[in-house]
Task: structure prediction
Amino acid sequence: MNARSEPAEAEPEQAGPRTSARPPLVRELLLVAGLFLVYKFGRQLATGHTAEAFGNARRVWDWERVLRLPDEGSVQSLLLHGDALVHTANTYYAAVHFPATVAFLVWLYLRRPAHYVWARRVLAAVTGAALVLHLLFPLAPPRMLAAAGMIDTARVYGPSVYGPPATDELSNQFAAMPSLHFGWALMVAVGLIVATRSRLRWLWLLHPALTLLVIVGTANHYWLDVLAATALLGLALAVLRPPLRRRCATPARRAQPRRRAAAGRELVGAAR
Result:
């Protein structure tokens, strides 16, 4: 009996995250816009809780002292060394947060579609959880709390994105916890570190680090706001895992199935 060795069948290449199907653009634009409108409407529901927001602010300030967290005022004093420095911090707070997140999502959509879907889901989960916390725990920022002894740097030095709290209809200024400024910035850094392979990708952590310095130094957030945002993001990342990155096949690896097939044909011919 002649033994025959059938040629090994080459396994098809599997598409990795880079070649995943890109979601329809119009659907994504409508989805993101819808989520943003829901969030803005939800924030408006939390307005008007002035007494509760200031009561919670005093509690947060006392909790931080019990936990021996650094005084936010020490960070602000660093920014107040020069008008240009504090003005730059206010500009970073006002102009970088939202555009940087949008640029991050656009880049992922164009270059890493699978990572885009993952990042969009994580950001939506964190933002939705933050909205619930804003409704349940309205919180006045430290710039409004007399016990903090801090100044509203945006109002004094500019630029400012907020009007007087009583007449500001565009934003809810009593939604300090958690800090979405920091939560989104940290997700941008995590997403780019996961989705890229450059040795310099860890430098993206400078974005949340600068954001942390800015939001605390400008008296817009407490340390506990940052810790709450980090906890929400950590929970979302634990539940929503990033796509697996498959190793790209090198020319030598792609040639292996062909060599196995050729060897199989040789064995078949030798047995005749």
Summary: The chain has a mean pLDDT of 83.
